[in-house]
């Protein structure tokens, strides 16, 4: 499909949740308002939720320790059927499914703890459970399904059936306006035709959530629409099981639909609501990914500690050498902060008092970026052993530490469920929503003069109230946040810096106006600053919560970790502010123009391209499959 940039933006904008009916800590932070009252005291889970969660974690730990052989999954590139069946029997498929439908009804907090535990044994198993419950059939039905749909499908998802989410196509990634899979109304059915790419769980799935475009016609609004589809429906062919750099056990494939009939009763929500359903589902669904990153950070810390105690160089354990010790401090402090971000966001999701769309997106962005850095630092700490496979280490008589596998497995998280670049733009759009709400027409080039006058009046009132509040605040008073003891200076820094961030954003909007959306480098840095401030806030609140539980030693060490993290984060924030206005964005754009017009092809000389022949993007023309069906239901 050929879609203009404006049309693509309109589709994305229409899929957004337009209203803010609940408070949002992160939204306020980007507006320069440090609403500590929204996260402190740290929200606490219900005792019954804790009891059920801990009971399940205890059972899950036994299963993970005795039944999941991560080395075997890596070696065979497949999760054994008996492992998946064991997870079914344990109820792990229904962690997020309500008890009224046969699920465990775990909170988001304990669901994430379970994913971190499972992923530490093998991330592919964690990805299977996450794709099934976070974005597969259970979550969209929980939010948007009818009672009939819930009764029909949720009990199956809780115990027996694996689900998958199908949105991406060979030529459609983060631009869903070009979605080509069609769902044509035909009586009481829809007829699906098209090809879906990177269908996690698609190779083994029993149920699918499929996004397809319904053509506009009499009686049909049309638009991108969500459907629950039986995985063994006639006309569905899994044409390929894809293989990747990491997550070798991932059951991810290419799925073709050819004249697949789907009952209208299986449509989720109204026609045209598919993207909104997908984005709303991801508001909490994205929290599963930082859960695996937290698990990886904990594992990295354990391995680094044990290895650097055993490894002696120049008469001292390597951890005592500053160059290595700095890496370990980063891993420990960042793991603490990531868990703080995850637990805070998850508990807020459970309480449903706050709108966490920005918090969840920040958790995904920050977790995937910092998780990758932590694993990379572990490989560096391990040196040559970090580059060597666990099997090779074991074969020559050493502990088989799969650090290189962890690096390969972790890399996808910067792409999964919204790449870092897309997350920057998504969060930036939400962060400036208040400005666009009052001044959008003022900076929109296509707006009429009357609309611009109206917007100018509204913007004048908003900024007259808002701008003076960015001048001074509690962060400039030495005694503010004194109850946080040694962490108080960091919270004062967050408050001051949030106001500075808001001023910088306002200045950029005034300077670039409608061109602001093209300044992706600037927007990315704005978002990264906000992510650091959110993580600092979460770390301080989490440390104070631990101290107030009465465990003096753990509280002291939590404050120490939070202090170290905040000091590291403040350096990163100051660097990001410097790069807001002093950067290479403009020369970079010039170089890109030169690359695209062929000015530098001489630089490519002297190498051999070992890529195989073939098109850059596979043909996805609708029609019958000519490939063997590799769909593999778990028996």
Give an overview in words.
A 4-stranded mixed beta sheet has the order 1-4-5-8. Strands 2-3-7-6 form a 4-stranded antiparallel beta sheet, with helices on one face. A hairpin with a 2-residue loop joins strand 9 and strand 10. Helices cover 55% and strands 10% of the residues. It has 3 domains: 200 residues, no CATH class; 226 residues, Butyryl-CoA Dehydrogenase, subunit A, domain 2; 146 residues, Butyryl-CoA Dehydrogenase, subunit A, domain 3 (Up-down Bundle), CATH 1.20.140. The mean pLDDT is 94. It is of the alpha+beta class. The relative contact order is 0.11.
SSE diagram, text form:
Blueprint: H1 5-15, H2 25-30, H3 47-67, H4 70-76, H5 81-90, H6 108-121, H7 123-135, H8 138-144, H9 147-159, E1 163-166, E2 182-186, E3 189-200, E4 207-214, E5 223-230, E6 236-241, E7 252-263, E8 267-268, H10 274-285, H11 288-310, E9 312-313, E10 316-317, H12 322-351, H13 357-382, H14 384-387, H15 390-395, H16 403-411, H17 420-431, H18 433-443, H19 449-466, H20 488-512, H21 520-548, H22 552-581, H23 585-596
Parallel strand pairs: 1-4
Antiparallel strand pairs: 2-3, 3-7, 4-5, 5-8, 6-7, 9-10
Helix pairs in contact: 3-5, 3-6, 6-7, 6-11, 7-10, 8-10, 10-13, 11-12, 11-13, 12-13, 12-21, 12-22, 13-16, 13-17, 13-21, 17-21, 18-19, 20-21, 21-22
Characterize this entry briefly.
With 635 residues, the protein is of the alpha+beta class. The chain contains 23 helices and 10 strands.
